[in-house]
Each structure stands twice: as C-alpha cells, then as structure tokens.
Task: structure prediction
Amino acid sequence: MILDLFAGPGGWSKALDVLGERDVGLEWDEWACRTRAAAGQLTVRTDVAVYPTWPWVGRTRGLIASPPCQAWSKAGKRLGLVDQPLVHQAVADLAAGRDTRERLLASCRDQRSLLAAEPMRYLYALNAVGEPEWVAMEEVPDVLPLWRQYAAVLRRWGFSVWVGILNAADYGVPQTRRRAILLASRVRTAAPPVPTHSQVAEPDSLFGPGRDRWVSMAEALGWGATDRPVPTICAGGGPGGGPEPFPSGSRQALATAREQGLWHPQAASADVVLEPQTRGAGWTARHGSRSATPAGSPAPTFTSKATHWKWALRSNNQANATVRRLDEPAGTLFFGHRANECTWVAEPVGAPPTDERQPPPEPIRITAREAGVLQTFPADHPWQGNKGQQFSQIGNAVPPLFAAHLLAPHLRTALNPGDFALTA
Result:
C-alpha cells in the first residue's frame, strides 16, 4: 500500500486517484477526514504521533508525508524555527532507533514543531524490512535543512535522494506556491520532475520540448465576459472565512448570485475590465480577447462616462499582502486566521482625471470553490465543514496537480495534465 502521513483533505490522494492508485491516509482533523470520506478516500482518523508503525511493516510500497507547516510557515509565528535544533535531534535519535520525543517535546516552543520528525519514526520501522520503495515529502521552504538531514539518513539506507525547492506554478498550478520537496527511491535515480510551465512561454528547441506560460487565475477559473451585473457584497467575515455579517440591504453575496444563476463566468481572457454603468445597473465584467489587444498596445483610455478596473486577488489583509492580477497565477494561498483572508479587489486601469474617477467595486472574498480550483482540486470537490474549516483545509493541502508530477515517476505512470478538470 501507499501510506500518506498527515493526509489532510486529500491533495496527494487526488493525485494518486488520477494516476490510477490509492493511498491510506492518517489524519487527525475531523473536517479533513470528513472531506476525505466524502471524496471516497481511505482514511484512519488518528494522531500520527501516537499511531503504531507495526501495521504498515511489510506492506508499504510508498510513503508520503506533509507534516503541518503552521509552526514553520511565514504566515504564522514561525516558532518552529526556534525549535529547529530540537527537531533535528529528534530525527537523529529516531533514525538510530531511540525515541526521545517526549523529552524533546517538553522543550518545544510550538507543540506542532516535532511533528516534522514523525516521518522518520515510520521510515525507521519500515527500513528494517527494506521498505518503502519510494518516499515523497513536502513542506514550506524553511524546512529544507531538515529535509537534507532526512536525505543523509536515507542515503545511508540505500536510497537515491533529491531535495530542493520547487514552484508549483512551473507544473501548471495557477499559484506561485514554493515548497521544500524530498524525493527518494530504492529503484531509480531520484530527480525533480521536468517543469512544464514557466513565467514566459518557451518554444521547443533542439534541447527539448518548450514550456507553456504559467497558468493564470482567469484560465483556471474559466472566467470571461458576462452580461449580468456583479452584485456588491460587504467585506468581513469570521476567522478563516466564517459567517459573513451583511448589513441591512446588502444581503446578496457573490456566492449566492452564482448559485442562483445570476452571474455566469465564461471563457477566459487576458484582460478583465470592469466598467461602471448607469446608476443602479451595478458593475459588469467585460473581457477583451488576447488577440484583440496586441502586445505593446496603449492602456484603455478613459472617458467622462467610465473608469476602468481590473480584478486582482489580494492574499491577505496585511499591508504587504501579495496582489496578483487575474491574468497571473495567484500568490501562495494560506488561511486559518482573519488576517489571511483572500479577497478579489478592483484595481484601476490607467489614471483618469480626478473629477472623473469612479469608486471601485467592493472587495469580494474568495469562495472555497474558487480557492480549491486555484489549488487544482476539482470544482466539485466535496469540502466539508463551515467556511473557516473549508478554507483551513484548502490552504494546508498539497495541490493535486503538483503532487501528481512528483509521484508519476515513482509509479511509472505517464501524467496527462488534461486529467485535472478544474472548472465545472
């Protein structure tokens, strides 16, 4: 079997499903387990740190691990960096068959830090019988030194190992999500997958196939021209995207409009321009085709009747938040705190005279469906829980398309990116 530690809502599992394989996921979070169950994924709800290793010995072909990253991520307090020496000590001890986790945990500033050492406990037990055949692990970039420690141990055990930082956008994910990756194998030379995309499209050459341009949010979401106004919604909501307190007279949310068929995004385009209409008509999203706007063309001109706007995605509420236009990939999506809410915001195109400026549309918070698609989950993935619980799962998940690129060589399977149908 394939064992998936800290399986979350099923990023690795979805990738395996597309590749014709299945895993057994160990996961503690109730709502991630419910999402996995709704998606038909095999799951044991348990604490990875206390679950025994013996049930897997003699039965495990591949091991996957994506330990929780909150203690290490730049989005959090990063106390995992303070605990780093303790985590390295735990890995060294477990690799030698000594379990010192209880003593080391008492000294950790963040109780989650030591979870990054748990894969070594399983690897040590499996190595006694020559397992697993391959290993794939993923974490935030700051964990790279720890992955290098794992690599040194695995090489002593006969594995070929590659560690490094990869950008998910280079593999067709509409998000510039950089992650520390470890790939190891007993039967093949470990190497990163060949990138399929780049920031600027590259043509085929004598040295190999070319690369497509990074996938934009508009392409992934299938957004294009629409004949219906976009309703205005108020900003706000609970932590991680909780209940939205709409004031009187502003009850209609964008998500409700979509569900009721009042707003239908269509074919994607390079430019998304919002034009104010007559009073009371709302805002209409209009898309100019890429071919109709040659490179180097001047920016749209402003008339006395309209100010033009383009949608962009703001990654959080902080002053230094990443803001990406709709014709670009998203920045790294992360949730779990009110300050990490992602919102669609309107940015002006050009600079009209001051007396002709129009107020921008209200920010619109991203939906779980949209965030899931930007993580390359299918649009109908059955996320469970309230908004905050869904967003937390999505932000912590491995993008399935990225995971499939990492796993395909180990499974000796050809990956067809077309199998990842994102929009419904």
Notes: The chain is about 25% helix and 15% strand.
